[in-house]
Amino acid sequence: MSKDQIIDMPFTTDAMKAAIERRIIQSPELSDADRHDLSVILTRLDAQGLATLVETVLGHAIESGSEILPYLKRLGEKG
């Protein structure tokens, strides 16, 4: 397995970063400075850092309320 591939996931770190980058660019709530800062941080993440980011954000979303649960259920049904 490549060091740029997250364990047990069939996509590369770069592909995941590109997907997150699209979300950053499309977010109307972010200022240009915020977009730039987030893009720089994202560029520096390796596979382990990206996995930690995903775990942290998902954990926060779950702890913040049940809004994420229907989305997770839909993903689970697809897989």
Summary tags:
single chain; 79 residues; mainly alpha; 4 helices; 71% helix; 0% strand
Short description:
The protein is mainly α. It contains 4 helices and no strands. It has a domain at 47-78.
Explain how this protein is built:
It is a single chain. 71% of the residues lie in helices and 0% in strands. With 79 residues, the protein is an all-alpha fold. The protein has a domain of 32 residues. It is globular and about 35 Å long. The mean pLDDT is 85.
Share in helix: over 70%
Q: SS-based structural class?
A: mainly alpha
Residue ranges: pLDDT <50 for 5 or more in a row? none
Strand share of the residues?
Answer: under 5%
Distance between the termini: 22 Å
> How big is the Rg?
14 Å
**What is the number of helices?**
4
Overall morphology = globular
Global mean pLDDT: 85
**SSE order, as H and E?**
HHHH
Most strands sheet: none
Q: What is the β-strand count? A: 0
Question: What are the SSEs and their pairings?
Answer:
Elements: H1 13-26, H2 32-44, H3 47-64, H4 68-78
